[in-house]
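User: Okay, second chain of the day. Same drill as before: sequence in, structure tokens out.
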Amino acid sequence: MMRIISVLGFAILILLITACNPWRLPLLKEEARKQDDRITRETEEAIKKSSKLQELNQLCTEKIPKPTDFELLNKHRDFHEETFVGYGYRSKLDYQTVKRFYLDYFAQNGWVLAEDKNDGWGDPKIEVHKDSYRVTIYDMGAGEGKNYSIVCGKLK
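Assistant: Same drill. Structure tokens below.
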């Protein structure tokens, strides 16, 4: 019984050390990187073949600016309906700076703020709409990996 309690205590300690994110464990971290690479390759191929995804890719990568230190880490998409494409970034900028950058840009370019989520369950985010488009900027938290995600999609 004591051994089970010790193992359970050790497992809880590991989860706390990794900030309850098991992908930070060395073995899982490498697997997560491989999966991100695979999804990025598949997303790039899908963008080449789909005019809908090409349109969203252009919006997210060419029309909407990024802070100068945003480093692209991965890409993902809607696998079923081609309604969105997303990008994971690493940056040293804090969320309030990034949020202000985007709120200023979107306000000056005719986008309407639809959501500004700072509290509660889930990642903080802002979502804006313009015409038939939506753009969501997620704060994924501090850390060595992806800490911002930008998702461009079509409104339904």
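Residues 38-154 form one domain.

User: Thanks, on to the next one.
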